[in-house]
Amino acid sequence: MNPTLEVQGLGFSYGEIRLFEEVSFALHPGETRAILGPSGSGKTTLLHLLAGLLALQEGEVLWKGERIRGYSEGALARRRLSYAGLVFQHHYLQAELTALENVLLPGYLAGKVDPAWGHELLARVGLEGRAHLLPQALSGGERQRVAVARALYNRPQLLLADEPTGSLDRRNALRVLELMLGLAAQLDTAVILATHDEQLVAGMEELRLGGP
Fold it and tell me: Which keywords does the record carry (predicted)?
């Protein structure tokens, strides 16, 4: 069986600045890997390459054995919508939409709107009573939990999380991380988590950028 994500010899440079080279690994359903490194080491760039949001320079990225380099921009966007979920440091919720409507947004884009599933996801992240509220009525931790539910709405095979707890205090960070990884495990979703916080991901398999 092909891995969910296969990375072969990735390298990337910004002008004369070499961020990383020869990055290779494979990730199977339900597996989690932490990408560690200081600010500027290339963590976000690597995630954008894995998501097909940035053009490859060196190496290949494969989703279930298919090279994403071969997709047109439009075809890759459609494939990403169903295959990969994205969580960022800032929640990027739509201010005019309720928590439930934000969770359902990927469904509208994919033509698969299921309010019952949206409510279930909010319940799983502990927000079953907050579905009707706009983002400004939610705390920072609650907004990020809505963002996690939104990223998993289309039951993606791959979840890419870029410093998803970076703007939260330690208590909320641990809560969001626990919920995100627990829900992804239930869906058998492979997870790549980029962070500078080594304590947060202690015990996870690591890929380290920008130093030993």
Answer: ATP-binding, Hydrolase, Lipoprotein, Nucleotide-binding
| pLDDT tens column, 133-149 | 999 999 999 999 999 99
Q: Quote the tokens at residue 71.
A: 């997709």
The CATH number covering residue 84 comes to 3.40.50.300
The predicted pLDDT at position 201 comes to 85
**Does residue 71 sit within a domain?**
yes
Per the structure, the complete domain to which residue 173 belongs is given by 5-92+155-208
Encode the chain in three state secondary structure.
Answer: CCCCEEEEEEEEEECCEEEEEEEEEEECCCCEEEEECCCCCCHHHHHHHHCCCCCCCEEEEEECCEEHHHCCHHHHHHHHHHHEEEECCCCCCCCCCCHHHHHHHHHHHHCCCCHHHHHHHHHHCCCCCCCCCCHHHCCHHHHHHHHHHHHCCCCCCEEEEECCCCCCCHHHHHHHHHHHHHHHHHCCCEEEEEECCCCCCCCCEEEECCCC
Give the pLDDT score at 211. 60
Does some domain include residue 174? Answer: yes
